[in-house]
Amino acid sequence: MLALITNDDGIASPGLVVLARVAQAAGYDVVIAAPKAESSGASAALHGAELDGRLMVEPAEPPGLPDGVRAFAVSADPALITFSAAYGAFGARPDLVLSGVNRGPNVGNAVLYSGTVGAALAATSLGIRAVAVSLDAADPVHWDTAEQVAAHALAWFATVDAGRRTLNVNVPDLPPGELRGLRQAPLASFGAVHARVVPADPLEAGRRGDDVVIRYEGTERHTEPESDAGMLDAGWATATLLVAPWADTTLAVPPLG
């Protein structure tokens, strides 16, 4: 069985290696393919850079890369990476996609805009089991807590008939001993998500290194304590099952003509 690890924070993020270890411990062969640059807020966009009609891919070695894991930096948004992997871009079609561990939460209805969640939803829509994992800090410290929660969530999710469901997991940036546990939670009304804003001249911005990452966040941590945002703020890791795009025919649209 093959697991693809991707993210929207880029190939240098330590969260990739965390999920690679989780997948290896669960018995998967692992390949990492992640954006060459920050792609936060990309949702399920299919943007990529091509050279002579081919997606630009280069070998990479994220810090702490486990033995036996191949890694690639891809000039593309994470959903395009997932889409490409499903059609053999990085070897065999993956049986599992793990997206993250994201730096910062992906909670509430704002997950619609998340590149981390977008990659996982893209996988599910292609018939691949997928889990997105996020850690609630812009500069996380407790990656070991995220690894523990992700391993627990995957052990359950791998055994159920998930159908068109994607598992979205958020973890507080706390030591394992201070984590209250894991609870299933509904989406907050808006929630929180990161996005990257590039100044008007992207080439000049790249030379100066002054891309801006902004965070959209609602107030649900205080006003919706039973939501994923509220429970995360209270020290719980949260699990939310999302449904990949599907057609709902329970409400009839009147025909025209």
Care to describe what's here?
With 257 residues, the protein is of the alpha/beta class. It has a single domain, classed as Survival protein SurE-like phosphatase/nucleotidase (Stationary-phase Survival Protein Sure Homolog, Chain: A), CATH 3.40.1210.10. The protein has helices spanning 15-25, 78-86, 115-125, 143-157, 202-208, 220-223, 228-233; strands spanning 2-6, 29-35, 50-51, 54-55, 57-59, 70-74, 96-103, 129-136, 165-172, 182-184, 192-197, 212-217, 237-243. Strands 5-6-2-1-7-8-9-13-10 form a 9-stranded mixed beta sheet, with helices on both faces. Strand 7 (96-103), helix 3 and strand 8 (129-136) form a beta-alpha-beta unit. Helix 1 packs across helix 4 and helix 2 (78-86) packs parallel to helix 3. The protein is globular and about 45 Å long. The model has no long low-confidence stretch (mean pLDDT 87). One of its GO terms (molecular function) is 5'-nucleotidase activity. It is an enzyme of class 3 (hydrolase). Residues 4-187 form the Survival protein SurE-like phosphatase/nucleotidase domain. Keywords: Cytoplasm, Hydrolase, Metal-binding, Nucleotide-binding. It comes from Xylanimonas cellulosilytica (strain DSM 15894 / JCM 12276 / CECT 5975 / KCTC 9989 / LMG 20990 / NBRC 107835 / XIL07).
